[in-house]
Amino acid sequence: MLENTEDFWSESWMNHIEDxxxxxxxxxxxIKNYFKDIxxxxxxxxxxxxxxxxxxxxxxxxxxxxxxxxxxxxxxxxKFPNDKLNYSKENAFDLSFNDDKFDLIFHNGFFxxxxxxxxxxxxxxxxxxxxxxxxxxxxxxxxxxxxxxxxKELSQNDDLYKIRFFDKDEIKEIVVESGIKYKEIKILKxxxxxxxxxxxxxxxxxxxLYPFRKMIVPKLYQLQxxxxxxxxxxxxxxxx
Length: 240
Prior knowledge:
By secondary structure, the protein is an alpha/beta fold. It has 8 helices and 9 strands.
């Protein structure tokens, strides 16, 4: 794992958390609109838990987890004391939940902080144990050279941006090599130019797609060239 301690994450989240909370819960929106057969969800390494909170507020039995207790306490005791979201302090290598506890487990930008595939494989096996139907992985796209350059520049002043990028074949190969039992692996494009349509106005003009944004934007992502896509969404349908 990249050399980031729990103290590092406590400090990083406190420095960035308001920006994360203000951002569109893109992963939560995608999950709500893509999956029609789920009720319970777990977000691993949620940090701000922005996406699991969105799902909780939309009727799902959602749990937001992270290994940083300070961040979780801030969210549930200070920021959102009446939150519908369940919070849980978790070690991603050894989750405290029973087998098949959640319909779907997801993490958004978590694997990007691990240099070795062995750690990713171990965590995937643990997620397979706890998930009944799906594991959904969001990672940053190596083919987007502009994004890679941007993060490299930002990392000079903030270690939060020192991340690992993946290409679509690499993340699929990691899932296969983990040995988890799956029916299907799907790779989708996620994030990019069309995120602008989540705003009420685009370049100072009214956004005519705004009322339909939550259904349309994830579909529009797929029209982009891979070199312009921000993240890779890997959907693993488990074989149970």
